[in-house]
Specification:
CATH architecture of the largest domain: 6 Propeller
Strand content: 35-45%
Strand order of the largest sheet: 6-35-32-31
Number of strands: 35
Largest sheet: 4 strands, antiparallel
CATH superfamily of the largest domain: Kelch-type beta propeller
Distance between the termini: 29 Å
CATH topology of the largest domain: Neuraminidase
Length: 333
């Protein structure tokens, strides 16, 4: 990397071995892969013994990615679903105690608001989901303890019942957008590997076939033709990861922690998973090839929660924490 004379620049490299920042870097913080620094006084960045960058004047760290507490849901619930982004999230359905719920709430980056007239047509939990705040889809789930094939779409104001899944399932995963979604896994008559694609009108068996490994209560993220499925329960908790390219499911590197009922958000090349099992706080990041357990952990361990967002800007909300329904929202940024 050549010398530069700018009075201030930002360098976006991971400041961890084998990179070193001579004289100024604190080696007690080798795990911060999200930091960057600005030139403020003399320093030299090295990789091994090779000098790669000189600067004029010190550095100042930007804040690393971490979990912070956001606005609480208006109704504490578990086994709910979510869609959207950090500053524009959507929560729908779930259970309050043992009762199916049809509440929809929207998040503006600070607080959740109940959507008047925006309740699900069929109250249920353990659904799959896809989309963003003003254009979302939810599908499957349990209705009064009976598996469901019901699918509904949201336009930012109301939910409309759409054509149903081919196979009724609950504890399934989903990803994609309102006009092109993917559902996979769950429980039908048994733990299922079923994968279906949504074209905006109908659900059909996926062109690329089913999951390699049947499982329930895992998570998924990405798009219809570029998706990731990870974790879940088979006959025990799992750390299996698979990717989908629209033509075939492929086995990928495992997660570091066996898990189920966790949140997963992002794209097929950059995502994260958090929580799960029983009140887990772990966060793992996905780079398209491997999972890395990061230092940032949820402030409150939980599972059966929902989430949304992208790798460096996501939400976790609701779920079960300490054996009770949770209204807690946490922001990853």
């Amino acid at each position: 990397m050549p010398e530069q004379d700018e009075s201030q620049v930002t360098i976006d490299i991971p400041i961890r071995p084998p990179w070193t920042l001579d004289k100024y870097w604190d080696p007690a913080e080798p795990s911060n892969t999200h930091g960057s620094f600005q030139e403020l006084s003399n320093y030299i960045v090295k990789k091994g013994s090779v000098e790669t960058r000189k600067g004029i004047a010190g550095f100042a760290w930007s804040s690393p990615i971490s979990w912070s507490v956001g606005g609480t849901l208006n109704t504490a619930r578990t086994r709910l679903s979510g869609a959207g982004l950090l500053g524009a999230g959507l929560s729908m359905g779930g259970l309050v105690g043992a009762t199916d719920n049809n509440i929809t709430e929207e998040y503006n980056g600070t607080a959740w608001t109940n959507i008047a007239g925006g309740t699900l047509n069929t109250a249920r939990g353990r659904m799959g989901n896809a989309g963003v705040q003003g254009a979302a889809l939810c599908f499957g789930g349990l209705v009064a303890s009976v598996k469901s094939a019901i699918s509904e779409s949201y336009d930012g104001a109301t939910w409309s019942t759409t054509n149903s899944l081919q196979k009724a399932r609950y504890a399934l995963s989903g990803c994609g957008v309102l006009g092109a979604a993917l559902s996979f896994g769950g429980v039908s008559s048994a733990v299922s590997a079923t994968c279906e694609e949504w074209d905006g009108t109908n659900w059909s068996n996926a062109a690329g076939g089913n999951l390699i490994q049947a499982r329930q209560a895992g998570t998924g993220f990405g798009l219809q033709g570029a998706a990731v499925s990870c974790g879940g329960y088979i006959s025990a908790n799992s750390k299996i990861t698979e990717s989908y390219d629209g033509a075939v499911w492929s086995a990928e590197n495992d997660m570091n922690v066996v898990n189920n009922s966790q949140v997963g958000v992002g794209t097929s090349a950059a995502g994260f998973s958090c929580g799960g099992s029983i009140d887990d706080t772990t966060t793992e990041e996905w780079n398209g090839t491997t999972w890395t357990t990061v230092a940032a952990t949820l402030n409150t361990g939980k599972f059966r929660h929902a989430g949304c967002g992208i790798k460096d800007a996501g939400l976790s909300f609701g779920g079960t924490a300490g054996g009770a329904d949770s209204d807690i929202t946490e922001e990853y940024s």
